[in-house]
Amino acid sequence: MENRTAERSRRSYDADFKQELITMLMSGRSARELSQSFGIAENLLYRWKSMATMKTKTKTDDSESSKSGKLAAENARLRAENERLKTDREILKKALGLFSKSD
Question: Do the beta carbons of residue 40 and residue 34 sit within 8 Å?
Fold first, then answer.
């Protein structure tokens, strides 16, 4: 038996080329057509497409989690400020009551 793995070398593709093929695939061209035109396996096109969609989902999830983290921090800050203002109001009510009795 021949050792074919030693003879084969992996081809690498740049990100722009991958993105262009993914765009073509998502715009409605068939994977088979792209595969035959560019000499790339169909499963490789599908893999690139799934990796691209996972990256966009991850970016969206990261931005949503950072937004929710910011909202939670702002909510906590506003709750603390609200408690402080309630305490200040109670103190002012008591002070007003003391000053009005002394007249």
Answer: yes
